[in-house]
Amino acid sequence: MESAPLSAARRWTILAVCASGMFMVGLDTSIVTVGLSQIGAGLHAEPDRYSWVVDSYTVVFASFLITSGALADRFGRRRMLLTGMAIVGVASLLCALAPSFGVLLLARVGQGVGASMLTPTALSIIVTTMTDPGERARAIGVWGSMFGVSLAAGPVVGGALIDAFDWRALFWINVPCVVVAVVLIVALVPESHGGKVRRLDIPGQLLLVLILAVTVALIIEVPELGWTDPLSLAGFAALVVLVPVFVAVESRRAEPVIEPALFRVPAFTGAIAGAFVVFVAFSMTLLTTTMYLQDVRGWTALATGTAVLPMAAAVICCAPLSGYLVSRVGARVPLTISGVALTCGGLLLIGLAPSDSVPLLVGAYLLVGAGVGCASAPVTNTAVSSLPTSRSGVAGATTSTARQVGISIGIALAGSLAAGATDFTSASLPVWIIVAACGLALFGISAGLSARRATEQRIPSRQ
Questions:
Q1: I need a labelling partner for 366 at 20 to 30 A (CA). Which of 20, 68, 251, 254 fits?
Q2: Which band of pLDDT confidence, cut at 50, 70 and 90, is reported for residue 356?
């Protein structure tokens, strides 16, 4: 609780600290994409297992975001931010020292647990710090852009680290970053709590983890196992049982991990869907083109990472502009721009062949990056503004869950469709069709969203 209003300089300094945590979260998602071959060779893993290096992190990350947001509202947001940073630091150390592929995946799970504490907590701190709606929209635009920027910057940083050291440096880099972040959080970020204490939904949380893990596992493993393999059939049967059970359990919980009432507001539902499709498109583009440049064209990790810079530049330029547009005209315009950019980016890559020119790829990167940058602020601001400030942790966590589920699904799909393909052009065609379809989906979503409707429709507190 604050005894006096914070100055503008202090508010934006807090934003910078929280955004740095968001940057680290995104970086840990994408920094490994340029090092998958090196990691696999170093730890003797098969190429069809590579997607798990990303998804063992993102699935756990997505699964625990909502619970972490509720815990932050209950036990203190700064305390949760510090705890998450510490877990990320320790898990990163274990990743760097991993003696086997299995140990690496377990350590990546730990990174995901820690990262799940950072994202909703940082957003809650920003929302409670920035009380003016216009300032909040601009701040959320900056905060949200950090995730897109870090995802796009990850391959650049990863390529440079691998070129200078080896794949273990991809994880060592987190350790000093965590130390600096902890010092800044202790010095600058005030403690705050949510107005309502939520009880933990352990059954719902466990079911959510199982559903996401089984879904991603099926996407990754079925192409290798076959649709009629007993393990594949068991996975499909498990989903048929788990999903209805999850719905039944959540509908009876007083405070479920995913609250059905949230989705009665069309603006909130649209924001969640928007976050999902944007990051399906983004992650599929990032992983598939990384494999294309390294495996098909024979580029080094550093050269591949450098090629992604236009995507990062587009996110950096478009995200603040998107936040400004949201504060001035609402969510519909920037979301429509995002839909156009993603659709054109996907269409541009259809038929990508080994002999295609780099400018074609750069153009697609610029379009996809613009699509991600333009979507971040309207999606996050709409979701947060649809709930009371005391529920900002849950709102932010739900949005981030959709974003991370999108990344998990996108990585799994891209890995299954394009990894190890002998004819890359044919194998990648479904990837680009899905990317373009995600852009088209945003048109429908943007038609149902506006900032005014998001702020006027409120979900009453649960009794």
A1: 20
A2: low
Q: Would you call 188 exposed, middle or buried from its count of C-beta atoms within 10 A (0-12, 13-18, 19+)? A: middle
Q: At 287, which amino acid appears? A: L
Asked if 136 and 120 count as a contact pair (C-beta separation under 8 A), the reply is no
Q: Concatenate the DSSP letters of all residues of 69-130 into one string.
A: HHHHHHH-HHHHHHHHHHHHHHHHHHHHH-SSHHHHHHHHHHHHHHHHHHHHHHHHHHHHH-
More confident residue, 140 or 77: 77
Hey, how many other C-beta atoms are within 10 angstroms of the C-beta on 390? Answer: 16
Residue reference for tokens 């709409």: 382
Name the residue among 371, 382, 278 with its Cα closest to residue 330. Answer: 382
First-to-final CA distance of the chain: 24
Tens-place pLDDT, residues 318-341:
877 887 787 777 778 888 899 999
- In contact, 127 and 389? CB cutoff 8 Å: yes
DSSP string, 277-307: HHHHHHHHHHHHHHHIIIIIS---HHHHHHH
